[in-house]
Amino acid sequence: MITEWEWIVPFKGRNHSGSVEQNFLCKAGNVYVMDNHRAALWCWLNELDLTTPHSLIHIDRHPDALQSRLDEWLKHLPSWAAGIDAYLGKTYQSDDFDCPVIRWDNYISIYLREFGDSLTTFRCLTHEDGDPPNFGHPMYSSPWELPENLSYWLAEREGPWIVNIDLDYFYCQFESDIRMMVSDDYIEAVATGLKDAMDRGTIGVLTLCLTPDSYTPGWTATETLAARILERLDLAFQLPNLVEPT
Fold it and tell me: Is residue 208 within 8 Å of residue 163, measured between CB atoms?
């Protein structure tokens, strides 16, 4: 199986991602893969008209809905028609520093303020590690509900769906280690649910984030997990080995 990926942000290497560094962003069809979740909103804008009805399921250790300077960020947003470089590169002055407007921990709060009125359903599965979403009544679900219900949740009547997944959701801290907290069968069931919804055409866009240097064991583990999930979607995923880790 060979998949032709479009490299929107060409692979820079297995480097630190942190809150704002983007080491890669690629797409195949309506599936996007990245190392830093801050690019997700750009992907959604690229696939959907977010001013029209749609739904979001957010599967992530964190809500990604930081609101500490939301009003300030909203004054300095990039054009929603901007290319990826302008989107990622948009900054504002804060305490004499140039700060990126969109980060890995605030893109959901920005999205909800800008486009929340168009949401039909917002289902949120997190570890409650961060500010709760700035949205009236999200539907909260536990990790143990996900495998058996994902396909059911992604209903046609509420589509098109944004499916936003961070692989850190599937890991937890155990003493000094970060370990997978779910079984192989769990991952297979989630991937199968995604495949079923894809086949039914209810997913408008899928964004999958590795988060390789925080809350996960690292690049090798997250690349392997991403490849496993994507294989179930008939997509072959492998990062290049042209750039050595720094």
Answer: no
